[in-house]
């Protein structure tokens, strides 16, 4: 199943890159018909990128909003494309999305530095539930905070 998902995502990426979004979206629908769940990080990132690159950012925003409502998360790349579009067209929306992505990570870092690891983990879990994956920097904050508390083996 993983291999089939990889093949579909590779094709979707290629068609999006070539501006052939109709084919890319047909492949996504075919994935679903075949019982293959579109990857919440790659499949949708490629489609959002393709829409923004071909001058259809409003459609990308609609998919973004729908995915958030139904619990399909986004990754840093998805945020990058949507924020990039918003920077060019809707500064307020861009700032909101940027804050959503960055603020949580900064707060996690602050909690870890102050030794409040439990609250940092709560925020990390909240990030994950909103589809925002922790980064290497986020995990580095956890390691620093846990080592500071003497939890070296747990870090």
TrEMBL record:
Cellular component terms (Gene Ontology): mitochondrion
PPR repeats: 4-38, 40-74, 100-134
Gene Ontology MF terms: mRNA binding
Domain of life of the organism encoding this protein: Eukaryota
Record-level GO BP terms: mitochondrial RNA processing; RNA splicing
A Pfam family that the UniProt record links to this protein: PPR
SUPFAM superfamilies in the cross-refs: HCP-like
Annotated signal peptide: none
Keywords: Repeat
Family to which this protein belongs: Belongs to the PPR family. P subfamily.
Name recorded for this polypeptide: Pentatricopeptide repeat-containing protein
Biological source species: Dipteronia sinensis
